Structures are given as structure tokens and as C-alpha cells.
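Appendix B. One record, verbatim.
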Amino acid sequence: MSLEPSSLQSVIDDALARTPPGRCVWVALSGGLDSALLLTLAADACRRHPRALRVLHVHHGLQAEGEGFERHCRRLCSRLGVPLDVARVGVDASAGGGLEGEARDARYAAFRRRLLAGETLWLAQHRDDQAETFLLAALRGAGSRGLAAMPAARDIDGWCLARPLLGYPRSSLEAEAERRGLAWVEDPSNADTCLGRNFLRHRALPRLVERWPDAGAALARSAALSGEADGLLEEFAAEDLTRLGGDPARLPCAGLLGMSAPRRRLQVRHCLARLGLPRPPARRLDSLLEQLAARRDAAARVAWPGAEARVWRETLYLMSPLAPLPADWRAAWDGRPPLATPLGPLASGLARDDGGPVALRLAPRLGGERLRLAGRGERDLKRLLQEWSMPPWERARLLVAWHGGRTVAVAGPSGWLACAEGWRIG
């Protein structure tokens, strides 16, 4: 699709009108053609429709040319009269995400540190970038979420990340940049075809376009349709979650087993996203779903980086990995809150009913503790935890309060669970 020179300016004017009034708009500036043009268009729009505009340049420290990129960005921002923030980040090229993935994660971490709620960050990706992203996702065997590629806009921690040029080919950006006489820098790493995206850009896509001239537009259209399909699947998954009780961290196995296998996989992925947890690899997810029919008394567990799932008493639990309590942790305490513990702060105190002095010792539960409850007499803490239907992994992460040689209270991650006769919480 060919655009008139003024059309891209209208696109940015319209994008500015859609941002929250009175809030700052940011532009991510690498110094290349795409982001230099986006900033120039944004500065023009913000002059005619007064709005605070700031620029963020992320210095990855991966190549000697990085200093030159930064100097170019400073000159451009100075000429346009726009304040520039430079974020210097570290990228571990040997990490599991690969060089491209780790650099992307570093950029997004820099974005999160700068952007405030209600603000907008514009990125300069265009339609050809979208086609490349779609192909990369397809080559990884991605489903509808991955094939949706890059959304035109999405919320992150209360601020908006938007790509106002996503519907337009790079040829249109080049024509507008040349018309304006813009200067930009070329990142030499963009020519490295050992990187997957560059291989597609310089070798694969040109061959596709040679055979199918509208290949870029068609691939971007497929990404958009995949995004629509993914949105519908999320709606279905949300409805299923409501029928399953509404708690993404606790799903009844019977309800999940009543679904088809693809629907079960969708529901687990949906719940993990709701909880902010990473999705498991496909084999881990299959292993997890096989555990749903485990015996009622089984305590199955499947783990992957950043999350784990457990099946207990016909319920699937999804959670962050649980670190064991330090066995040597001890605390002397007078019962007055707050108290810092490995489980988090205890906001409620403990006091004796008779008002007597309190000299407590807190330590992780070891087993064998007994608790005397009002009206029930002395009870084995293990049996009490079973009565309370506490999952086994939570029973191993409890703190016990002792007064002398007597157990007087037990606490979990959410606070005090119970206290002994003659004691009160508060």
C-alpha cells in the first residue's frame, strides 16, 4: 500500500488524539529510520496539539557503535526540542532467551522503569516487522497467541504501549523520511543473517515478495486474524473459568476432565496468564493434564521455570515455585506486631488472655507439635491441618509460636491460623 507523504502525519495526529489527555507521550528511539521518523512526526503533532513528549533511548552495550547511536539520538532530540532519557542496560547473550530475546527483555524492563500510569509509549514497528514476527512465530510452532504477533496497542502496568505505524509498510516510511530529509543511523547488527529475524528480512521475505508481491500485507492480515481468534478463545476461557468456580489458582479436576483436551489446555494457559505465571513447555503441559485423573489421595506435582502445578484432592493448584523455609530461622518476640518472617510480615500480634508477660519464640514447624484449643482440648497439629483441608505443601511452610515449652499459635503465609486456649490474636 502506497501512502501520500502527508498520510503518516495524519496517522500520528489521530494516534495522539486517542491518548489520555494531559498525560505524557513517549517515543522509543533507536536512531534508525523507523524510530527517527516516528519521533519527527510525534514532535510535529505535539507542537500543533500541545502535549508533553519525551524520548527514551535504550543503550544495550552490545557493540562499539552504541555510543554513536546515542550521540545521534541526542542531536535529533536537541534539534526537535524534545527531552531525552537514556537507559543503559545489560544483556546476557548467553542466557536461555538468546541474544534477541534477552535484548528485548532488557528494553521492556527499561520501559517499565520509566513509564507512569496513564502515559503512552510509541514504538516504530511497521507492517513488514509484523510479517517477520508472524513468520518467526509460525516457525516456532506457535498457536493463535503467538501468531497474533504484535498488537497495535496493549496495557502494561497501567500505561499503554502502542504501535501507530503497524499498518503501513516500510517503503512508506522510507518515502516520508526522504521527503523530510531525515538523517538516521544504520545498526550493523541488522545485516547479520545469523539472527533469525534478519534472515527472514534479507533472504526469505524478498523471495516471498518476488513470487507473491502482496506477501507482507497477507502475512500481517493473518496476524490480525490470529489476534481476533485469540481474543475469542480468551473470552471462552473466561466463561469456562467462571463455571469452574472463578479462582484461576484452584481448578476442580472433575470440571477440567469434562472438557475436551484442547479446551483443558486453553483453560490452564488462561489461568496462568491471569496469575501472571509463565506457560509451561508443551510436554510439561501434557504431563500436567495427565495428572488430573490422579487418585484423590495423590499429591502430584509438575514444575517448569517460574511456576508449578499440583494436584491434590481432585483440585489443580497453579502457583509460583515454593521455596522451603530456612530451617535455622528463629525469632524471639514479645507479641507486638509487626514481625518480619520468612513468610512475610505478621501484621497481627499475640497476647495472653490474663494480660501476663509475653516471651515467644517462633520457628518453622518440625512436626509433632500439639495445640490446646478452647473447648476441644489438646490436639495434634498434624490432625488439625488435615481437618482444615490444608494442602500438604502448605503444611510444610508454617511457623509455630512457643511460650516456654508450649505451642501457643501457628501461622501461615496469610497470617495466624489458630492460637491456643488462653491466648488471643490481635
